[in-house]
Every structure is written in structure tokens, then in C-alpha cells.
Design brief:
38% helix; binds magnesium ion; 6 helices; binds adenosine-5'-triphosphate; alpha+beta
Length: 180
């Protein structure tokens, strides 16, 4: 996986598989402390201590189609490669928080890639889930909350094509303004 935005898509898929109704993606790029932090927080089924330990092991998965689960171990590896670390917090019945930290300027830090596409993919595929996105960079920020957008839309579905076009335009211009 080349881009962090694809890792994010993968980690959010875990949240959705765990029955999350709301997923928060928070990105902070702090150039002063040379850190990039990505958090994915969900209100899904959560994991106990033993599941959390196993989740970081590439040979563990609760999926029945395949014997290895790579989402979390690959992200942990991407963190370590750039002088960072992955933190996992979870509570059964409450939810999970994945926090990935990277040295921003590290030569081996993967680029974020196309975060707009990741967000649009998630919104089209799972309009019923509330998705919150916040990206902070050098004192500026961009945020999006599909729960608020759904409230404004009333009966119009979030994944109606004209709504998706408008969302795509606003996400791409918001991220561009931020210099992402
Ligand atoms: N947000 C989460 N909530 C609840 N359980 C989770 C969450 N994230 C991961 N898990 C558990 O950890 C396991 C490992 O996750 P991981 O993403 O590494 O692999 P996978 O999802 O099983 O397979 P892959 O991501 O390679 O398709 C999952 O099968 C699931 O049991
Ligand atoms: Mg996974």
C-alpha cells in the first residue's frame, strides 16, 4: 500500500465490520514538532485485551475467508518505518481508537495520497454511517460531518449523485486550500 489514505480506508473498513454507526477520522500535521498523527475512532463492537494483542499480529483475523489480517500490522509497520508508532485503544461494546504517529519529514513516511477519494468512497458505500473528518495543518483546518449534512438534506439521500458531486467539489477544494 503506497498511500496513507488507502491505509485509512482499510482501517475504517474494520470499524464498519465492527458495526460502527459513527466513525471519526482526525488528521493533524504539525510541522513544528515534525509529526503527523492520524486517528480513527469508532463506536463499534470493540475488542478486549487479548483481541487487541492479536489484532496487531499479522496471522490473526476474525475473517473466515482468509487466514491473515494485515490492516493493522501494515499500518503499524508504516509508522515504525518513519520513526513513529501505532497505538490501539479499545473497549468491548464501546468502540476502538487507532492512533498512528509518523515523523512528518521522514524520508520513508508514506504520502497521504488522495484523501478526497477515500472520503467519497466511504460516503458512497456507507451513507447510513455518520462520518466525521477533521484535518488540521499549520493552524488551519478542514472538517466535514455527514450527520450535519444529512440533517440539512432532509429526505434527499447522502449518496444521491448531485449530492456526491457537490461533496466531492467541497472536499477537494477544502483539502487543496489546506495544502494537502
Ligand atoms: N475497529 C475495530 N473494531 C473491532 N475489531 C477490530 C477493529 N479493527 C480490527 N479489529 C479486529 O482485529 C482483526 C485484525 O484486523 P486487521 O485489519 O489487521 O485484519 P482483518 O480486518 O482481519 O483483515 P484485512 O484488514 O487484511 O482485510 C479483525 O479481524 C478484527 O477482529
Ligand atoms: Mg482490516
Amino acid at each position: 500500500m503506497q498511500d496513507l489514505s488507502l491505509h485509512i480506508l482499510d482501517i475504517v473498513e474494520n470499524s464498519l465490520a465492527a458495526g460502527a454507526q459513527r466513525v471519526e477520522i482526525r488528521i493533524e500535521e504539525d510541522l513544528q514538532s515534525d509529526r503527523m498523527t492520524i486517528e480513527i475512532i469508532d463506536d463499534g463492537s470493540g475488542m478486549d485485551e487479548e483481541m487487541m494483542r492479536k489484532a496487531l499480529d499479522p496471522f490473526f483475523t476474525t475473517k473466515t475467508t482468509r487466514r491473515v489480517g494485515l490492516g493493522l500490522p501494515l499500518l503499524a509497520e508504516a509508522c515504525r518505518m518513519s520513526n513513529g508508532q501505532l497505538y490501539l485503544q479499545s473497549c468491548p461494546g464501546k468502540g476502538t481508537a487507532v492512533k498512528a504517529i509518523f515523523q512528518h519529514s521522514h524520508i520513508d513516511r508514506k504520502p497521504l495520497g488522495n484523501m478526497g477519494d477515500t472520503l467519497i468512497t466511504l460516503i458512497i458505500g456507507h451513507p447510513e454511517v455518520d462520518l466525521f473528518y477533521e484535518h488540521r495543518k499549520e493552524g488551519a483546518h478542514f472538517s466535514l460531518d455527514t450527520r450535519e449534512i444529512k440533517a440539512d438534506l432532509g429526505a434527499v439521500p447522502l449518496n444521491a449523485p448531485p449530492v456526491i458531486s457537490a461533496l466531492r467539489a467541497s472536499i477537494f477544494s477544502g483539502l487543496e486550500e489546506l495544502g494537502v
